[in-house]
Amino acid sequence: MNDAKEIFKKYQAQTFKNPSSLEVKSANGSYITDIKGKRYLDFVAGISACTLGHSNPIITKAITEQLKHYSHVMVYGEYVQSPQYRLAKLLAENLPNNLYTTYFTNSGAEAIEGAMKLAKRATGRVEIISCKDSYHGSTQGALSIMGNEEQKTNYRPLLPSCNLIIFNNEDSLDNITVKTAAVIIEPIQGGSGFITPKNDFLQKVRERCNTTGTLLIFDEIQTCYGRLGTLFGFEKYNVTPDILCIAKGMGGGMPIGAFITSWDLMNLFTFSPELGHITTFGGHPVNCAASLATLEHLLTNDLMQEIDKKEALFRKHLTHPKVKEIRGCGLMLAVEFDDQTLTNKVVEQALEKGLIIFYFLFCKTAVRITPPLTITEDEIIKGCEIIKGILET
Ligand SMILES: Cc1ncc(COP(=O)(O)O)c(C=O)c1O
Predict the structure, then answer these.
(1) What confidence tens digit (pLDDT) does each residue in 374-390 have?
(2) In a shared domain, residues 292 and 316
(3) Based on the structure, what is the number of domains in the chain?
(4) Which CATH number covers residue 20?
(5) What is the distance in A from the centroid of ligand 1 to the CA of 308?
(6) Of all protein residues, whose CA lies closest to atom 16 belonging to ligand 1?
(7) Pocket lining: 136 vs ligand 1, CB cutoff 6 Å
(8) 139-145 long-range CB contacts below 8 Å, 24 or more apart?
(9) Which domain CATH number covers 255?
(10) What is the reported pTM?
(11) Host domain of residue 164
(12) Tens digits of per-residue pLDDT, 66-77?
């Protein structure tokens, strides 16, 4: 057997019955090239991960420079490693005072797991509240708070005392009580199709948490590192969480996550018992170097200031009678159609025509657009024209 697709199907775990199986040769800027040399304009960026585009020389340089010095040397938290502490310091300098101490992880789900543990430890409570239709990762703790029973049911029993509120539903906030350790919420609900907060919902969640002594955890795994036009999503909505979880785009294409909180809270992991949370590869120096380069670039260039304009361009060029709604914010946009058939058609035909767009976990009638933040205006227009061309057929 030497056909790559067959080998992929036979030897690699499959998550999905019909993956597109695009056979990647290389990727550069906003484009992925397959082994036949066909170029695809990438409106997905590895699901909001490749913040500065593919193979950005800034990231490549940071990675290769770091590799010249050292790669993995020790488990997280034991040795002083410059990519880690410089990144942690730069994050703290760009966050409010209560978000000062960073714990690096390998992924988004692990950041959520750490934050959940910390909230239980800090409050002495067990209940974690999340939102219906939320997605926070696939590990058991993150799965326990996923807001979709169909995805959870085969894996029960999961963590006890995980309850739900409904995103944008103020009445459901009564479910948050003095028994609740933490509320975990995405500033923009991702898996359900980029639902933005309405009527100061996030402020109201913050107020309710203040009243009940509940910690507020923001899952900014998808909204961090400039995707909404601000470094973090909470800045956009003027609500500061007690614990911030980030990942995806923070690595500029490399795998890294983090949960960030105050020194006092984070310090709870260091005693009774000590080693309360440990990881071998969390904060890998090469990935921290990539993340640091991404963050430095965002802080010293106009990329974030250009996001509003790019969003407006998408909205303008995707206006079409068959587009019911364009939801989301910044470069995190959902294009809603009438039905699933049209949604599937758009995704499949776009790929044939050299444009990558993608599905949502829980919303079957919309497509996801989360391009690299470096996408150009010409590329935006070109991709939108492909989508509209498909809608015309
Ligand atoms: C909002 C949100 N939280 C958590 C996760 C889990 O992150 P990871 O896949 O890195 O574990 C994701 C991934 O899609 C996400 O979008």
Answers:
(1) 999 999 999 999 999 99
(2) no
(3) 2
(4) 3.90.1150.10
(5) 24
(6) 222
(7) yes
(8) 139/109, 139/110, 139/112, 139/113, 141/112, 141/113, 141/116, 141/117, 142/109, 142/112, 142/113, 142/116, 145/112, 145/116, 145/184
(9) 3.40.640.10
(10) 0.98
(11) 58-300
(12) 999 999 999 999
